[in-house]
Amino acid sequence: xxxxxxxxxxxxxxxxxxxxxxxxxxxxxxxxxxxxxxxxxxxxxxxxxxxxxxxxxxxxxxxxxxxxxxxxxxxxxxxxxxxxxxxxxxxxxxxxxxxxxxxxxxxxxxxxxxxxxxxxxxxxxxxxxxxxxxxxxxxxxxxxxxxxxxxxxxxxxxxxxxxxxxxxxxxxxxxxxxxxxxxxxxxxxxxxxxxxxxxxxxxxxxxxxxxxxxxxxxxxxxxxxxxxxxxxxxxxxxxxxxxxxxxxxxxxxxxxxxxxxxxxxxxxxxxxxxxxxxxxxxxxxxxxxxxxxxxxxxxxxxxxxxxxxxxxxxxxxxxxxxxxxxxxxxxxxxxxxxxxxxxxxxxxxxxxxxxxxxxxxxxxxxxxxxxxxxxxxxxxxxxxxxxxxxxx
Length: 392
Known about the structure:
Blueprint: H1 2-19, E1 30-31, E2 33-36, E3 39-40, E4 45-54, E5 57-60, E6 66-71, E7 78-79, E8 84-88, H2 91-126, H3 132-164, E9 167-169, E10 174-176, E11 186-187, E12 195-198, E13 203-210, H4 214-222, E14 232-235, E15 247-251, E16 261-268, E17 280-286, E18 293-297, E19 302-304, E20 307-319, H5 326-329, E21 330-347, E22 350-355, E23 362-366, E24 376-378
Parallel strand pairs: 1-24
Antiparallel strand pairs: 2-23, 3-18, 4-13, 4-17, 5-12, 6-8, 6-11, 7-10, 8-9, 10-12, 13-16, 14-17, 15-16, 18-22, 19-20, 20-21, 21-22, 21-24
């Protein structure tokens, strides 16, 4: 009997435990640090990768065939327009020129003889003292002699031009590079590159902008933008600041239909030759936004699949139906609300936010690793500052 009673009590306990509704475990509050967003004035630069280029650059090609007999310049030096650079063996071309001059003299002598004969036969022909055929032949011989002189004169000019091509001169002021030929090398016209020369001051700097920025840069080119002394500055490959400022020279004629981008060219004075063709630099365009900006720590911005979010602290009311009093039935609770934002320029450790949050919002700057949208948060147990934030 006692065993039956004990079994009944045990079964009743099991049924009571099974019928009792289980309460879900409460979500723990995540400790965080908050910051109130306040607009403020910000000075920054838009940065664009760029490449230096010469305003004029030419490859030096020989116009005649021959061996290099002299090199007059120092590689990598500055040369001036008209300065001698190379000499090609000129002996053959001197001989050709002398021969052409001699042929011209012979042609001029033949012309004088033909003119005398023509004058004599013309006089005799007036008195019918010579056969008509001899007179006609004398006139034709005179014309042929004149044409021969013209041909000989052109041959002299051609020989002189080839002789002049034996010396290669600098076409403009600029910097010359490494010589592609050495003394004794045989060069051929149109196929052998002797060297490359490029202008060095001013120097062009090319960079790419998005087509959406084109109207702004057109305003800057026309002088309608803000008058900022340091509007265009340049960071050199070693991250040092180039001492001179630049100005817009050219905006390309067309937008690339595939990338939606367009090339812009700046020019910088380069009196000391710090800029060389082909350098990878960074163009800085001075910020012209005059209004206050919303600036937040970069670690407060979370990146997910190419989109950017910030957690904002919001007050929420939680209802407790088991509370015995009205005051205990509801309580206020801070929760994290995820906001999609559009970040702008990075300014040191901070980021400018273009849209998505408002001035006065309380954003979460630490403790983001444990958050999701709607997580309860607390500021009582503050977490130490961290560099966390942007994540995928």
